[in-house]
Design a protein that fits this description.
By secondary structure, the chain is α/β, with parallel strands linked by helices. The chain has a single domain, classed as Rossmann fold (3-Layer(aba) Sandwich), CATH 3.40.50. Helices cover 37% and strands 16% of the residues. The protein has 4 helices and 4 strands, in the order βαβαβαβα. It is globular, with a radius of gyration of 14 Å. The N and C termini lie close together (10 Å).
């Protein structure tokens, strides 16, 4: 099966998008190669995002905050925005790249339990949508 390329786009690329990238690369490794980026990248991964991924054996040193400009040359099969700002400022992608929005509250600055909830929400809401769109087609 052709491995599909998927982009999760957020504002800072420090919490939600990093968690989603890791979850997709873990849960859907057989069909998806997930990337993440920020429309205004913070340049760092939130320590609690890293902690929740480490607790679930999903952390990789490859996960880092990066600006959307650094990956615009990649042809994505699907782009998902996870915050309103990214949805509003999402660049146009070449070809027939589908762009959808599945929003999540920003856990940045919250207690670690909020990151656990965000992790579970992304796994429950986002992973099945990507699986249906990219792995079953």
């Amino acid at each position: 099966m052709h491995e599909k390329k998927y982009l999760i786009l957020c504002t800072g690329n420090s919490c939600r998008s990093i968690i989603a990238e890791a979850l997709l690369n873990y849960d859907l490794s057989y069909c998806v190669n997930a990337y993440s980026a920020g429309v205004a990248a913070s340049g760092k991964v939130n320590p609690n995002a890293e902690k929740i991924l480490k607790q679930n054996n999903m952390w990789s040193e490859n996960y880092h905050s990066k600006a959307i400009e650094t990956i615009l040359g990649v042809k994505f099969d699907l782009v998902v925005t996870v915050c309103g700002n990214a949805q509003e400022t999402c660049p146009t992608f070449p070809g027939k790249t589908e762009v959808i929005h599945i929003g999540f509250d920003d856990p940045d600055g919250q207690a670690f339990d909020v990151f656990k909830q965000t992790f579970m929400q992304i796994r429950e809401k986002l992973v099945p949508v990507v699986s249906d769109k990219l792995c079953l087609s």
